[in-house]
Amino acid sequence: MDIKNQTVLIMDFGGQYTQLIARRVRECNVYCEIKSYKITAQEIKDGGYMGIIFTGGPNSAYDDNGPKCDPKLFELGIPVLGICYGAQLMAQTLGGKVVPVEGSREYGKTEVEFNTSSLLFHAADKENICWMSHTDRIEELPHGFKTTAISMDCPIAAMEDIKRNFFAVQFHPEVQHTVEGMLYLRNFLYNACMCTANWRMDDFVKETIASLKKQIGDKKVLCALSGGVDSSVAALLVHKAIGKQLTCIFVDHGLLRKDEGDQVEKVFKQQFDMNLIRVNAQERFLTKLAGVSEPERKRKIIGEEFIRVFEEESAKLGKMDYLCQGTIYPDVVESGVGESAVIKSHHNVGGLPEDIGFEGIIEPLRDLFKDEVRRAGLELGIPEFLVMRQPFPGPGLAIRIMGDITEEKLEIVREADAIMREEFAKSGLDKQVNQYFAVLTGVRSVGVMGDGRTYDNTIALRAVTTSDFMTADWARVPYDVLEKVSNRIVNEVDNVNRVVYDITSKPPATVEWE
Ligand code: XMP
């Protein structure tokens, strides 16, 4: 069985929701790939795609300099759905007319009226709320099309040419605020593209293990396991395929959260009987970091030292043929317009140099989004606390201690962080807040404890909600939870006499303090 034999193509015109569209398609259990709008009709034909979705984008379809599609793709007989800019581009390319919206622009939740005899809106409500965000609109239909939805300011909110299987919507079916958006997408995927819902994580796991087995044969694979979700799932897939031919090196740099190193070791060594080498390198890292306060230097030192330790350990193992890495789809997505898919270099800490002398790199998660990686992890039996864990930066607690790093400071931030995590879990906030942690601010202040004056450390609590970590809002954590965390930290953690809560969003702040 090939679960990718029914792929839908997402053509990226630079819209902010491109990856969301792809995730939604996959939630319908249909595999899809994101490609730049520059893909040619011939490449599309060769790709054997079942359907095409045009994303939104910041340009105007009538602007000569805006991104265009290869018009020949409309002759391939493949169903196409245009969304927002994609809808306008379809209209403009096929002979319709797109104009700027004059007067009131539609932005946000909008009441839309549907023709439910349209294939796209089959079984949908006649009226519903959709999310609009556009400065242009389709004024004249291309030949062969009819209008299938209208809104107050948009006389052509959707259109279709059922003979050629072309559909276009001015609103965004992929965003949550479009109440029946998933229904419209399913109608397109199942009833226009005739896809079957065969992209499923249990099959992905089975298929991947089988193909890794074939690819690796009797060769040896090395993996750097960090305990994070991606490297854990990647390693376990390879382990299921080749067992002890895989060796994982887990560099414990001593900058992990409380008990984390032991948990990782326990799960992978005891539960999965993996070939895991844990290198306790805390002293090495602390020595290198001694007296260093500058955030970027800390990162650099940690990244370099990590590679050095890894190289030393792997040298002891003799020749290894492949290197396994936890690269995921958002890291490899081809960007449509400009540089919208820039990957921050600091996110590659733990990324290893390619000249270590491997025959090849194995990246079993290259096609998966994060939520799919988590589902695959659960499918493989990795405990939920590991699979669902919040992101944790490669340089670890080092970038949550302002100034230089010492063992004492690590102890303070580690204990404060553990208390915060415990209380968030108790109140269920761990499921609602995307990332939360304690920071040792480097600020000392005067306090009073018992009858005495204190002059001690300030801990800042940080908690954010976000969908992509590129922007984030500070979480509105209930006062009683903050109170509990604050009380416990000043009472239970030595040398802390003040706790503050960070109420800045990103931008202008970042999630981490360094
Ligand atoms: P910032 O602080 O850039 O964080 O708003 C966004 C997300 O990235 C994580 N982060 C890092 N991850 N190495 C990593 O692997 C790093 O150096 C690093 N710095 C930030 C951060 O935890 C958040 O999830």
- Describe the sheet with the most strands: 9 strands, mixed
User: What do the pLDDT scores average to?
Assistant: 93
Beta content: 15-25%
Count of extended strands:
20
Ranges where pLDDT stays below 50 over 5 or more residues in a row are 338-350
Work out the helix count: 14
Distinct small-molecule ligands in the complex: xanthosine-5'-monophosphate
Beginning-to-end CA distance, first to last residue: 47 Å
Radius of gyration: 26 Å
Shape: globular
Assign the structural class, choosing from mainly alpha, mainly beta, alpha/beta, alpha+beta, or little secondary structure: alpha/beta
Helix content: 25-40%
Q: What is the strand arrangement across the widest sheet?
A: 2-1-3-4-11-10-9-6-7
What descriptors fit this protein?
23% strand, 5-stranded parallel beta sheet, 32% helix
Can you characterise this structure?
With 514 residues, this protein is α/β, with parallel strands linked by helices. It has 14 helices and 20 strands. The strands form 4 sheets. A 9-stranded mixed sheet has the order 2-1-3-4-11-10-9-6-7, sandwiched between helices. Strands 14-13-12-15-16 form a 5-stranded parallel sheet, sandwiched between helices. Helix 5 (201-216) packs across helix 11 (370-379), helix 6 (229-242) packs across helix 11 (370-379) and helix 8 packs antiparallel against helix 9. The radius of gyration is 26 Å and the shape is globular. The chain starts with 7 loop residues before the first strand and ends in a 13-residue tail after the last strand. 43% of the residues are buried. Bound molecules: xanthosine-5'-monophosphate (XMP).
